[in-house]
Design a protein that fits this description.
four-stranded antiparallel beta sheet, six-stranded mixed beta sheet, alpha+beta, 3 domains
């Protein structure tokens, strides 16, 4: 093996070069490690920053009848991020959450009854958070459904033989209260469905759907819709119902039977009272 001062000098230089290379490589790797230390928390943070669960659209449908009441169906579209799907499914299975709780969870003020008479009441209220209906990779959607019966939504006027005009009470609207009056929110749609065999007498403002014919009438149309942001401060809606002769006869005898039944009950009460007085006089007189 070669020895001597020259060889030792070369070996020392090689050793020094190897140590310098290790230090230089370590210095080159340090920035990447630091970068990973920043990237990982940011990735974790981004999943929270972009997490969302909120209501994006309201669809209110009023199904009118011939007894001044209406069935109301309101659906709210919920958009959620992938990270919020688990929370929604968990809340959906909870039986203790109220409408107020859901409003807080969804950060919305739309989860209320939008159709009711302030001087009357509603009945048969149900609330159903629906299943996931659309999972499009970056998020998902679901529908919340409120269903109830609102009383005294219309007033009725007999304008002729078997002819009745029903007028929607605009005071029953409970959408968005602005300085100009009632208005439809920008992310909402309002629909009215009238009974079969009825026809619209007057409507204001004109619905966004359907379009009237060339003389301004709505023939054979039963569904009327107003879209986002529609002013409703002067809302009016009336429709005509023509009762068939058979229904008129049936209604007449039904009312007659009810009145006759009431009179019979009254007569029985009077006779029972007379008999009680007679017995009292005979026994105690």
């Amino acid at each position: 093996m070669a020895t001597g001062p020259g060889y030792l000098s070369i070996a020392n230089k090689a050793l020094n070069y190897h140590n310098v290379s290790r230090v230089y490589s370590a210095k080159k790797k340090m920035p990447m490690r630091k970068l990973l230390l920043y990237i990982i928390p940011l990735c974790l943070l981004s999943t929270n920053v972009f997490a969302y669960l909120n209501v994006t659209y309201l669809n209110t449908t009023v199904i009118l009848s011939k007894n001044t009441s209406a069935e109301v169906v309101e659906t709210l579209l919920v958009n959620m991020s992938n990270s919020s799907i688990g929370q929604y499914l968990q809340d959906r299975q909870s039986i203790n959450l109220t409408l107020s709780d859901w409003s807080t969870v969804l950060h919305t003020n739309l989860l209320i009854q939008h159709i009711f008479n302030p001087n009357s009441s509603i009945a048969g209220f149900t609330f159903l958070p629906g299943p996931i209906i659309n999972n499009y990779g970056q998020g998902a959607q679901a529908l919340l459904t409120m269903r109830y019966v609102a009383y005294n939504i219309t007033t009725v006027q007999n304008i002729g033989p078997r002819k009745f005009v029903y007028t929607f009470d605009s005071a029953a609207l409970n959408f968005e209260h602005t300085q100009s009056g009632e208005a439809l929110p920008q992310n909402a749609r309002f629909n009215i469905i009238i009974p079969k065999d009825t026809s619209v007498v007057s409507v204001y403002p004109e619905p966004d759907f359907p379009y009237p014919n060339f003389i301004g009438n709505y023939n054979n149309d039963t569904v009327f819709s107003w879209y986002e942001g529609e002013p409703l401060s002067e809302f009016s809606f009336s429709y005509l119902s023509t009762q068939s002769l058979q229904n008129e006869v049936t209604t007449y005898f039904s009312n007659l039977y009810e009145n006759f039944t009431q009179q019979i009950y009254l007569l029985i009460i009077i006779l029972a009272s007379i008999f009680a007085v007679y017995v009292y006089v005979k026994v105690f007189a």
